[in-house]
Design goal:
alpha+beta; about 180 residues; 5 strands; two-stranded antiparallel ribbon; 5 helices; single chain; three-stranded antiparallel sheet
Length: about 180
């Protein structure tokens, strides 16, 4: 049978009998207090526990923020979809097309002459929706632009009335020439 550390220290002469008894009493007292929960946990353990709690709180806060962002983006997408579907103009079929640029590619949309004039003047806008394009009024396009500017494909600036002092007012340059 192996000899306990206490006995080994006594045998080596490093501690005397009184010190050994005092150490064992202290150890028993410590165990009794630990069982009752009255003893203070080591300061290093306390700090580690507090740090772990702080890290967990920070992680939970970050996850919560990410979830809230996800919910907010989903709500914005639903609002945009609803805005487009409630304010879009009916699709036309015809031989007259309005050409516009989307992602460095020229796209075309069937329009009539009134719609062409309103698109050119900025009264109407073209937006991306469900893999295609929709024509909507300017007010709806501005509200969509607040939420997601990438959905707006074409929104011309509204045309202003020419100045009274402009010497070239009688010579308008068309910006929507038909080729």
């Amino acid at each position: 049978m192996s000899i306990s550390l206490r006995d080994q220290l006594l045998k080596a002469g490093l501690v005397n009998e009184k010190q050994a008894k005092q150490a064992s009493k202290q150890q028993q007292k410590q165990q009794r207090l630990e069982k009752k929960g009255q003893v203070e946990i080591d300061d290093a353990q306390k700090r580690a526990a507090l740090q772990a709690m702080a890290e967990k709180a920070a992680r939970d806060q970050e996850l919560n923020r990410q979830q809230q962002e996800k919910v907010q983006k989903k709500a914005e997408a639903a609002q945009i979809k609803q805005l487009i579907e409630h304010s879009r103009l009916p699709k036309l079929t015809g031989e007259d097309y309005y050409n516009f640029v989307d992602d460095k590619k020229i796209k075309r949309l069937p329009v009539n002459s009134l719609m062409r004039n309103k698109l050119s003047s900025g009264s109407l806008a073209i937006v991306r929706h469900a893999g295609g394009y929709e024509v909507i009024p300017r007010e709806a396009a501005l509200r969509i632009q607040e939420r997601d500017a990438m959905r707006i494909v074409l929104l011309n600036a509204p045309t202003e009335a020419p100045d009274a002092d402009d010497p070239y007012a009688a010579y308008q340059v068309p910006d929507d020439l038909m080729w």
